[in-house]
Amino acid sequence: MIEVYTDAASQGNPGPSGIGIYIKTGQLQLEECLFIGEFSNHEAEFIAVIKALELCKERFPDEIISCRSDAKVVVDAIERNYVKKDVFQSYLNQINHLSSSFPYFFMKWIPEKQNKHADELARKALKLNN
C-alpha cells in the first residue's frame, strides 16, 4: 500500500498557490513541491490530490493508494462523490477518473499536525516562485 499525503498553500484566496505531495512506500519516500499558479485554497487542495494521483499512476499503477489530506472540503467531496460548488466538479471528475485506475483508493482526513511534511513542501513551492 502506498501512503500519500497532500497539502496546498495559497497567498490570498485566490492567490499564488503551491502544492506539496509526500509519498511513502516501504523504504522509498518521494517528495514533490510544485508552484501551480493562481487558485483558491480549496482549488489548490483538489489539484494537490490530482497531481498525487498522476504521480502514483506513473510510479505505482498497480498499488493500493491511501491518500491523506487535512482539507476537509476535499476529503468530504471525494468520500461523498459530491461537491456543493460547481467550480469543484471538474476536479472531482479528474480525481474519480484517476483513482479508478488503481485496485483500491482510499481518502482519509487527517489533522494538520499529522500533515506537516506535505505542508512544508507546499510552502516551499510558494517560496520557489518568489
Helix/strand order, N-terminal first: EEEHEHHEH
Number of helices: 4
> What percentage of residues falls in helices of 4 or more residues?
40-55%
N- to C-terminal separation?
A: 36 Å
Structural class: alpha/beta
**What would the CATH topology be?**
Nucleotidyltransferase, domain 5
Residue share in β-strands = 25-35%
- CATH architecture descriptor name: 2-Layer Sandwich
- Radius of gyration, CA atoms, in whole angstroms: 13 Å
Spatial ordering of strands, largest sheet: 3-2-1-4-5
Model regions low in confidence, pLDDT < 50 over at least 5 residues:
none
Q: What does this molecule look like?
A:
By secondary structure, this protein is α/β, with parallel strands linked by helices. It has one domain (2-129): Ribonuclease H-like superfamily/Ribonuclease H (Nucleotidyltransferase, domain 5). The protein is built from 4 helices and 5 strands. Strands 3-2-1-4-5 form a 5-stranded mixed sheet. A hairpin with a 4-residue loop joins β1 (2-10) and β2. It starts with a strand and ends with a helix. The relative contact order is 0.25.
Supply database-style keywords.
130 residues; alpha/beta; Nucleotidyltransferase, domain 5; five-stranded mixed β-sheet
Topology summary:
Elements: E1 2-10, E2 15-25, E3 28-39, H1 41-59, E4 65-69, H2 72-80, H3 89-99, E5 105-109, H4 116-129
Parallel strand pairs: 1-4, 4-5
Antiparallel strand pairs: 1-2, 2-3
Helix pairs in contact: 1-3
Task: Give a brief outline of the structure.
The chain has helices spanning 41-59, 72-80, 89-99, 116-129, and strands spanning 2-10, 15-25, 28-39, 65-69, 105-109.
